[in-house]
Amino acid sequence: MEPIRYVDILSEHYRSQGNPPYRWSIHDDAPLHRLDKPLRECTVSLLTSGGVSQCSMPAFDPNARNDHRLDPIPADASARDFQVHDNYYDHTDAESDINCIFPLERLRELADRGEIGHVAPRLWSGFMGRIYNRSKVMEESGPAFAKALQADNVDILLAAPS
After folding, report:
1. What is the enclosing helix (H) or strand (E) of 96?
2. What distance, in Å, lies between the first and last C-alpha atoms of the chain?
3. Beta 52-54 vs 82-84: how paired, if at all?
4. Which run of H or of E encompasses 128?
5. Which letter does DSSP use for residue 141 in this model?
6. Contact 158, 75 (CB under 8 A)
7. Which DSSP symbol is given to 56?
8. Each residue of 27-65: pLDDT tens digit?
9. pLDDT digits (tens, 9 = 90+) for 72-98
């Protein structure tokens, strides 16, 4: 069986829409390191890119491109207080259980059981639009997000991409 050439197919799709060739990010020097404290002492936050917003916030544009919007979500937000707007995946299951794409209740359960130290005061939803302007992520959006995580004393960020 021939493997699916996902990158080639996606590149051709973007080219057919008039976009310049996509430059894939390659980070051979990612600064990974071991935790310097036990998981049960770590503060954990969460980021979804699945078009998830609280009902009191504007919905994400399901056709967005280069959307660097990043919504802070209080850690104690109700799991029933979300809407999903993204046209790149079937979010039927997420609409019936937001934990499929934004597992905030599962994260709180881990904290309640003492498996993680704390849930960070803010969880996050954003970077939802197909982002082609990598330099803005690397120079603006990413560093601003990192500062917000540092302000919340986050040790671990769980990413739940859509």
Report:
1. helix 92-96
2. 26
3. antiparallel
4. none
5. I
6. no
7. T
8. 788 777 789 999 999 999 999 999 999 999 999 998 888
9. 999 999 999 999 998 878 889 989 999
Model-level pTM greater than 0.85? Answer: no
Average pLDDT, whole number, for the chain?
89
Q: What is the pLDDT of residue 153?
A: 97
What is the spatial distance between Cα 51 and Cα 105, in angstroms, rounded to a whole number?
18
94-99: long-range contacts (C-beta < 8 A, 24 or more apart)? 94/50, 94/52, 98/52
Nearest to 66 by CA among 141, 131, 135: 131
Q: Rg of the chain over CA atoms, in angstroms?
A: 17
Residue entry with tokens 């916030």: 57
**Pairing mode, if any, of strands 52-54 and 70-74?**
unpaired
Assess contact for 81 and 56: CB atoms under 8 A. Answer: yes
CA distances from 72 to 2, 32, 54, 80, 128 (A): 42, 25, 10, 17, 14
